[in-house]
């Protein structure tokens, strides 16, 4: 136990005094023992005991041992800061330790304060000073700060260090500055470091530029550079995004030749590639060839079957996973649950819900939200309410899913109640949340409340309504019979409307038999949007019928027949227990 070790520290150093340490200190056996002890500490309470022993023996006044204490403390950055703030003259190693600690903590912005303090001391910075600070810039998306640090890098000559350049490349990609990253990469005289290439490849994929990633890989091939498993994984992800199986098959062959297929990351990327291309069975073969499988590999295959519509196979894999004693996580089920929600596969969805209960899985924000969404879409509102109530942590997506669920089930008042409860619990609604509550108001015919929410969205939360939000308001006004008001709204939109809003207005014209407005809307859909959708003609002909203008109705039906307009047939599915 660390407590007995702390006693050992006291005993070991009790004979030492601060006066015993010369000006130029060299690490002795006692220091090596102390360092080993610090490295074995896993909790702040344990480090505190070692710290106390160091205070008693005077070792906190020795830069070498103090630096080691500080380095061991950064797992609790507040405790490390309390040590750092009491050091009269911290050295470069100590500053770099704090930079690294803040860059991986929940307060990365504090790294900028430490960096400025380091520069104020007029110390000679090293590459580690820049790497940690650039990492903090990446996490904070601090583009301007990062560019300033880039300038310091160039002026100080540290741009010659490959790892500093790689940190800059990563920073620019994270901040969405593809051009800056490419320019920096082009300035590298001899591009022989595979990490730089890998950084570029992963950056292009993060920025949804798979074509650029494959072009860069071809350039690597022309230069005869050696690939790492990271390289192959990135390129497989790019090929997967492109859905280009022709480009993926040679890569698979290369993986087999180089022995990369046993690497879990490569195997996962191969399975995802085949799943995206619709050849999930080939991915399944790779899965069985991997000797030791982790939960990520299982998740990839289960999600692949779900995205290919083979929900029963996904469920079978889930049971096999349980049989193999591999513990699932929320990611294992989220993709499968979302597929059930999209397909309305209530039977499979209920099985997954029961599985979550049996395994007593924690209902975190991700898994809980997926279940709420699925239950709502499959018609099990009471189950959705139960899951939502048992979720300990709810994020904005969780609240939005529940609001949307109430709206879909025609319970607009409950949707509004949940929205207000969300605000009371301090969760800030998103634009999607407002879309859900406006849609609920529209279906519930709650016009006054809908207008109030649109005003709240703009005035209180500062969102600019999008065409979807205005579409809900147009539908709401139309359902209330305020057709001219809806028409004036869609004409006065600050953004260009789309066909959805106009078509909602046309549907309202059909309900109320407003032929004049219906004809104008139909003309706009044809002239402005060049839309010849059969739904528009059918809605207008129905408007004639409701208005009692049977000759016009007959004429319009004949025109539809002559124009050979065919409305896409709807379909429905019924699940049967076998």
Question: In words, what does this structure look like?
Answer:
The chain is mostly helical. It has helices spanning 2-13, 29-40, 44-57, 63-73, 77-84, 92-103, 110-120, 127-140, 143-156, 162-174, 178-186, 194-206, 210-223, 229-242, 245-258, 264-276, 280-289, 295-307, 311-323, 330-343, 346-358, 365-377, 381-390, 396-408, 412-424, 431-444, 447-459, 467-479, 483-491, 499-512, 515-527, 534-546, 550-562.
Concise account of the structure shown:
This protein has 578 residues and is mostly helical. 71% of the residues lie in helices and 0% in strands.
Summarize the topology.
Elements: H1 2-13, H2 29-40, H3 44-57, H4 63-73, H5 77-84, H6 92-103, H7 110-120, H8 127-140, H9 143-156, H10 162-174, H11 178-186, H12 194-206, H13 210-223, H14 229-242, H15 245-258, H16 264-276, H17 280-289, H18 295-307, H19 311-323, H20 330-343, H21 346-358, H22 365-377, H23 381-390, H24 396-408, H25 412-424, H26 431-444, H27 447-459, H28 467-479, H29 483-491, H30 499-512, H31 515-527, H32 534-546, H33 550-562
